[in-house]
User: Which sequence fits this backbone?
C-alpha cells in the first residue's frame, strides 16, 4: 500500500486512549476495518489506498480539519464477521466514534449493528448488499450497492417482460443480495421477468456442473455476480459449457487483475461498471489517479469507495466535531463531487446516488482495457428509498 503523507498515522493495533487529547479536540480517531488478507484482500487494498487519497485531497495534504488531526487505525477482518466485530468492539471501547470500511457484505451488516448499538458513525465501504442502505440512522455507505449494479444491467435490455433471467452468484451475502436485487428490478415485482438463481458455495473450485445448470435453465439473459480469486476458473467453465451461446451474459466489470481473466469471452460479455480509472475525466478523479500513481499504485475498482469515505470522514469531522449525531446530520443530504462526478448522500436512507457505466473490454496489445460505452445517469439507477 502506498505510504501516507507524513501527517497521517497508521497503527497496526487499536488506538490508545488519550482523554486530554480527546478533550482538547486535537485528534479524531477513525477505526478502518477491511480485508487486508483473505479472498477480498485486493479489494481491501484498493479501498485503503483510495482512502489515503481521499483524506489527502479533502484536507489539502494536511490530514487536519481546523487543527484537528484525523488518525487512522487499520484492522484486518479477513472477510470474517467475528474478527470484524471484535475489532469494532476494541475500537469503540477505546473511544473511537467513526468506523469505516469492509469489502464483505456480511461484515458490513454486522458492523452496522455495532454502530447502532453503540451510537457511532459507520461508513461502509465496497460491500454491496442492499440491506446496508437504510439499516439504521448511524450507517452510511461510500460505494454503490447491488440494486445499482442490477439497474445498470437492465439498461442493456429492451424488453424483460416474460423473459427468463438466470443469476449465477456466490452463496454469500453479496451473491444473495444480487439475487434479491435482480428479483426486485427484473423479476415479477419489477419488469416482469422470471428469475432463476444458481448459487455456488464460496469454497467451490470446480464450476462445470453450475455452468450446465445455467444452460439447462434456458435463460434469455444470464446475470453473473462474482467476486474473488475464483473468477477466472468460473468464466472458463462458462465458456467451455456454452453459456455464451445460450444467452447474452451481463456482469459487473471487476478489478484490474480480472481484465485478462475472461479469455475468449471478453468480447462477448456486456459489462456494467462501477468505476475504472479512465471512466471519468473530472478534477476529483484526476486527484485520485495522480495520488495513486505518485505512490506507485493505480486506480482500481474500489478506489473511489475509499476516496469518498475520506471525503465523508472529513465532512463529518468538519461539521460535527466529535458529536456523532452532528456528524450524521452533516452527511445526510450532502451533495459533492466525487471521483465519479456529482454524488449525493440521500437523506432518507443514506444511499449513495451516483452515475454508473456501461463498458466493454477492448484488446490493447496482449492485454485488455476497459472503455466506457455509455454513462448511466445517477437518477436512472438510484435504489428505491428504504422504508
Assistant:
Amino acid at each position: 500500500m502506498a505510504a501516507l503523507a507524513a501527517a497521517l498515522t497508521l497503527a497496526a493495533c487499536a488506538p490508545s486512549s488519550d482523554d486530554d487529547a480527546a478533550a482538547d479536540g486535537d485528534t479524531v480517531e477513525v477505526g478502518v476495518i477491511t480485508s487486508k488478507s483473505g479472498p477480498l484482500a485486493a479489494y481491501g487494498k484498493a479501498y485503503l489506498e483510495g482512502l489515503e487519497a481521499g483524506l489527502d485531497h479533502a484536507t489539502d495534504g494536511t490530514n487536519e480539519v481546523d487543527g484537528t488531526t484525523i488518525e487512522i487505525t487499520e484492522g484486518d477482518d479477513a472477510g470474517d464477521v467475528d474478527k470484524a466485530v471484535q475489532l469494532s468492539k476494541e475500537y469503540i471501547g477505546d473511544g473511537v466514534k467513526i468506523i469505516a470500511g469492509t469489502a464483505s457484505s456480511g461484515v458490513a451488516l454486522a458492523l452496522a449493528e455495532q454502530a447502532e448499538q453503540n451510537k457511532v458513525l459507520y461508513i461502509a465501504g465496497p460491500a454491496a448488499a442492499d440491506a446496508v442502505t437504510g439499516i439504521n440512522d448511524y450507517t452510511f455507505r461510500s460505494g454503490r450497492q447491488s440494486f445499482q449494479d442490477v439497474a445498470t444491467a437492465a439498461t442493456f435490455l429492451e424488453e424483460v417482460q416474460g423473459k427468463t433471467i438466470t443469476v449465477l452468484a456466490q452463496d454469500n451475502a453479496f451473491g444473495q443480495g444480487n439475487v434479491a436485487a435482480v428479483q426486485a428490478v427484473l423479476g415479477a415485482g419489477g419488469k416482469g421477468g422470471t428469475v432463476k438463481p444458481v448459487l455456488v458455495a464460496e469454497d467451490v473450485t470446480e464450476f462445470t456442473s453450475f455452468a450446465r445448470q445455467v444452460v439447462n435453465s434456458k435463460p434469455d439473459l444470464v446475470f453473473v455476480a462474482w467476486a474473488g480469486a475464483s473468477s477466472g476458473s468460473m468464466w472458463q467453465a462458462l465458456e467451455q459449457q456454452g453459456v455464451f451461446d445460450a444467452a447474452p451474459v451481463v456482469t459487473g466489470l471487476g478489478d484490474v487483475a480480472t481484465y485478462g481473466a475472461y479469455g475468449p469471452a471478453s468480447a462477448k460479455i456486456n459489462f456494467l461498471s462501477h468505476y475504472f480509472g479512465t471512466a471519468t475525466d473530472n478534477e476529483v478523479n484526476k486527484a485520485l489517479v495522480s495520488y495513486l500513481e505518485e505512490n506507485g499504485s493505480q486506480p482500481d475498482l474500489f478506489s473511489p469507495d475509499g476516496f469518498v469515505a475520506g471525503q465523508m470522514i472529513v465532512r463529518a469531522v468538519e461539521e460535527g466535531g466529535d458529536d456523532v449525531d452532528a456528524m450524521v446530520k452533516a452527511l445526510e443530504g450532502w451533495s459533492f463531487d466525487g471521483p465519479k462526478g456529482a454524488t449525493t448522500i440521500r437523506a432518507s436512507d443514506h444511499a449513495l446516488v451516483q452515475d454508473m457505466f456501461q463498458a466493454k473490454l477492448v484488446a490493447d496489445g496482449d492485454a485488455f482495457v476497459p472503455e466506457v460505452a455509455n454513462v448511466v445517469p445517477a437518477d436512472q439507477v438510484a435504489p428505491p428509498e428504504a422504508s
Remarks:
- Residues 1-24 have pLDDT under 50 and may be disordered.
- The longest helix spans residues 41-58.
- The longest strand covers residues 367-376.
